[in-house]
Amino acid sequence: xxxxxxxxxxxxxxxxxxxVAESIRSxxxxxxxxxxCYALGCQLGNRDGxxxxxxxxxxxxxxxxxLVCQDFAQLGQLVQVDNDVFRAIKASTPGSYTFILPATxxxxxxxxxxxxxxxxxxxxxxxxxxALLAELGEPLLSSTLLLPDxxxxxxxxxxxxxxxxxxxxxxxxxxxxxxEPTTVIDFSGGEAEIVRRGAGDTTRFE
Length: 206
Prior knowledge:
The protein is α/β, with parallel strands linked by helices. It has a single domain (3-205), classed as DHBP synthase (Alpha-Beta Complex). The protein has helices at residues 14-25, 47-57, 72-78, 83-90, 127-136, 157-164, and strands at residues 3-6, 30-32, 39-43, 66-68, 97-102, 118-122, 140-144, 170-173, 183-186, 193-196. The protein has a ten-stranded mixed sheet, sandwiched between helices. A hairpin with a 6-residue loop joins strand 9 and strand 10. The mean pLDDT is 94.
């Protein structure tokens, strides 16, 4: 049965955030809020957590997982970014964007696209996510909480607890954070390619 934490969306309780972060370090799979919608997250090297996310979402090995970063210092350790791409990303973050880029050797092989060797990265604009990342001191392996055969992600923490009670370890509830996933921009070819239109404005990438 999942632990349930009610967290203030703008002023998250530090003691609760610390408890969640410690559980993640110990192998927990967490459902948590972001600036686009709820997501599933675990520690970067957590193979069991990765397998559980794949199972919950029914994902194949071509799915791009997202590495959620606190800042550009973390992001720069995980992906290869040239100056032009860096400027484009910096102008859009923090925010509801996921950027697909060539991965560095810091990223576990099982997280990479099998042919392209790319990975998704993002820096969210959400107080709870940022507090959790700051407490963790490392990126979070993440995927949108969109269940198979459903058109939209789950939007309420209580509903996530009800439906995924025995599939996740922790539910962090900070209220409704929307149903629109991130906008996905693929920079792996050097130029911006809009893969998915979502919560982030695509104007600057068109």
